[in-house]
Specification:
Layout: H1 3-14, H2 18-37, H3 40-52, E1 57-60, E2 76-80, E3 83-94, E4 101-107, E5 116-122, E6 128-130, E7 144-155, E8 159-160, H4 166-202, E9 204-205, E10 208-209, H5 214-242, H6 248-274, H7 285-293, H8 302-315
Parallel strand pairs: 1-4
Antiparallel strand pairs: 2-3, 3-7, 4-5, 5-8, 6-7, 9-10
């Protein structure tokens, strides 16, 4: 299955629950890294259960002091004989403490991005522990914890790719992750737009249904335009990524930034159309609002998406 087909699935699933769908998308990203860069031994051992989802995988890049500047990460991996020993801490890890497998980026070389390598760590690895379960604004269907490594011992065969290849692996994974999280935003926004439309068709004020007010009609029209535009940008980026087009990276950044910003606005507008009811937990709109907000932060903040787009523009002749 390609990125385009996957984006359709994630969009559809997120119309029901954005948080659960995003959790699946992260698992999908981590599992694909193992499939693409793991040894035959590692792939045969872990992928069957990951593909059946009997076991789940987490992606571990962010650290307490290395967020947008991911290449500055401090987690270290030292090879001794047939084992690597990892020491460091990863922050905001979806599935932390719950999932069975962790794809971790750690430093094996110098302080540049070329000094970073990728590793697979099973949950039962010696020296692996987890922080407290975070109390979050949204994404509450999935646990989030710090992943802590204190001379965490793993076989040398659990290196993914080659030493020094980790940052490239991480960034390639994020290109697909940005499509997925954008698709999740589209699905959530579509669901809220549909709910808002149904609400204004029955809600009466000033003696008539709200749907007859031109201001409401225009608001719904703007919401529909944003959802449709976001969907097209995400699917275009997904197709380019499937084709290994050289413009895929910047297009993924464009799509992620546009879709997550625009779709959050759609959900916020849907809440406004619901009025006070939209603020109540009896209705689903406030949950979508809380869940979509983090999409503007994770998989690379939308400020970093602008950096990627601007950098690409400056390179054009």
């Amino acid at each position: 299955m390609g990125r385009l087909q996957a984006s359709l699935i994630f969009e559809a699933l997120s119309t029901a629950c954005v948080s659960t769908t995003a959790f699946l998308s992260i698992h999908n990203m981590a599992a694909s890294m193992i499939d693409n860069y793991g040894t035959n031994e590692v792939r045969e051992k872990y992928l069957p259960d990951l593909c059946s989802m009997e076991k789940m995988a987490s992606y571990c890049l962010t650290e307490p002091n290395a967020g947008s500047d991911a290449a500055s990460l401090k987690t270290k991996a030292v090879k001794e004989g047939d084992y690597y020993y990892l020491t460091g801490e990863k922050a905001f890890i979806s599935g932390g403490g719950h999932n069975d497998v962790y794809v971790v980026m750690a430093r094996t070389g110098d302080d540049s991005s070329k000094g970073i390598s990728a590793f697979l760590i099973p949950k039962d690895a010696e020296g692996l522990s987890f922080g407290k379960k975070e109390k979050k604004m949204g994404w509450n269907s999935q646990p989030t914890r710090a992943v802590i490594m204190d001379k965490c011992k793993i076989p040398a065969s659990h290196l993914l790719g080659k030493e020094g290849q980790g940052f490239v692996i991480a960034m390639k994974g994020l290109d697909g992750g940005r499509i997925n999280i954008g698709a999740c935003s589209v699905g959530g926004a579509y669901s809220c737009m549909k709910a808002a439309k149904e609400h204004v068709q029955v809600r009466k004020q000033f003696g008539k249904e709200l749907e007859h007010l031109q201001s409401v009609q225009f608001k719904l029209a703007e919401m529909a335009i944003k959802v449709h535009s976001s969907r097209l940008m995400i699917r275009s980026a997904a197709q380019l990524l499937d084709e290994a087009n050289p413009d895929a990276k910047v297009t993924c950044a464009m799509g992620k930034k546009f879709a997550t910003d625009s779709c959050f606005e759609v959900v916020n507008d849907a809440l406004q159309l619901f009025g006070g009811y939209g603020y109540l937990k009896d209705y689903p709109i406030e949950r979508y609002l809380r869940d979509l907000r983090v999409h503007q932060i994770l998989e690379g903040t939308n400020e970093i998406m602008r950096v990627i787009v601007a950098g690409s523009l400056m390179k054009e002749e």
